[in-house]
Design a protein that fits this description.
This protein is of the alpha/beta class. It has 2 domains: about 130 residues, 2-Layer Sandwich (ornithine cyclodeaminase, domain 1), CATH 3.30.1780; about 180 residues, NAD(P)-binding Rossmann-like Domain (Rossmann fold, 3-Layer(aba) Sandwich). The protein is about 35% helix and about 25% strand. Strand 2 and strand 3 form a beta hairpin. The mean pLDDT is about 95.
């Protein structure tokens, strides 16, 4: 008989958020990924084309972690028309020593949103200019909010601009985030205008064709791209990656299959120019060298991040006495 701790989204939100400890937990996994520590299999994706949906399964075993998270993440992009969120899912925790199930985290995608936002902050911490004060966001959904809010943990953001395909969505985002962060946030009609003002550009769209091109670039800009996580998606024109002084991925192999690196490689980009964020964090390779450098980081999302955030969330919930234990 196994005892499983069942946690709801509301309970998980009480335990973890956009904090310094959570940031450190996510930052710590990137060098493990780069060193090939533990075991992180390729993402399994189930496409559901008739309903504009997909289901991704991610996991990783990390040495030193008591648990292994297996995440089932659903993205059904017509859901907002039904009054439902476009992203959802749950995580299952397994004991690293025995493989026995230990927890079920019904987070509805919250932990994925959280760890992705924190990963963006980690990228900016190591690649954006230290004085970066203006953020631009492409997209106006949940991940756009998480990326901008998390960015303020690591850079002195004084104002932001947002562009989205739906102007009403951009306006709502601007009003909401201005109130939440206490900084001016402006919605603009053209992506090029937003990028021109930015020290840090955050792209969070499910675009199938590029929304950022070389004409939008300028010295000192850092781009964090989080939208491309499937072979059908691409936010950055290949010329953007070619123009970067440093091109960084969370996982080179994963980005080459599902992320921004895929199209670049198909166009002849030198794979040797792509480095991993963990290598930058541990000093194996340099990140930004000069303030004038233009840096790009492609985050496709890894199972290692899921194991890290789930482990922290379960530990916090146990400490707080949160959750329902059931015997199976």
């Amino acid at each position: 008989m196994a005892r499983i701790l069942v946690l709801t989204e509301a309970e998980l939100r009480r335990a973890v958020g956009l904090g310094e400890d959570e940031l450190a937990a996510i930052e710590a996994v990137f060098p493990l990924i780069s060193k090939r520590a533990g075991s992180m299999p390729p993402i399994m994706r189930i496409d559901v084309p008739e309903h504009h949906g997909e289901i991704d399964i991610k996991s990783a075993y990390l040495p030193g972690y008591a648990g292994i998270a297996v995440k089932v993440s659903a993205g059904f992009f017509d859901n907002p028309r039904r009054g439902l969120p476009s992203l959802g899912g749950l995580m299952i925790g397994l004991d690293s020593e025995t493989g026995m199930p230990t927890s079920a985290l019904f987070d509805n995608g919250f932990l994925t949103d959280l760890r992705t936002g924190l990963a963006g902050a980690v990228a900016a911490k190591h690649l954006a200019r230290s004085d970066a004060a203006v953020a631009a966001v492409f997209g106006a959904g949940m991940q756009a909010r998480m990326q901008l809010e998390a960015l303020t943990l690591v850079r002195p953001i004084e104002r932001a601009v947002v562009w989205a395909r739906r102007p009403d969505g951009a306006a709502h985002f601007a009003n909401t985030l201005a109130t939440r962060l206490g900084i001016p946030v402006e919605a603009v009609e053209e992506g090029a205008e937003a990028a021109a003002r930015a020290d840090v550009l955050l792209t969070t769209t499910p675009a199938a064709s590029p929304v950022v091109n070389r004409a939008m670039l300028h010295p000192g800009l850092h781009i964090t791209a989080v939208g491309s996580d499937a072979e059908t998606k691409q936010e950055l024109d290949v010329d953007v990656i070619e123009s970067a002084d440093v091109f960084v991925c969370d996982s080179v192999s994963q980005s080459g299959r599902l992320g921004e690196l895929r199209a670049a490689l198909e166009s002849g980009f030198d794979a040797g120019r792509a480095v991993e964020l963990g290598q930058v964090i541990d000093g194996t390779v340099p990140g930004r060298v000069r303030d004038s450098d233009m840096t790009v980081c492609d985050l496709t999302g890894t199972g290692a991040q899921d194991t890290a955030i789930a482990s922290l969330a379960v530990e916090r919930c146990v400490g707080l006495g949160i959750g329902t234990a059931i015997d199976t």
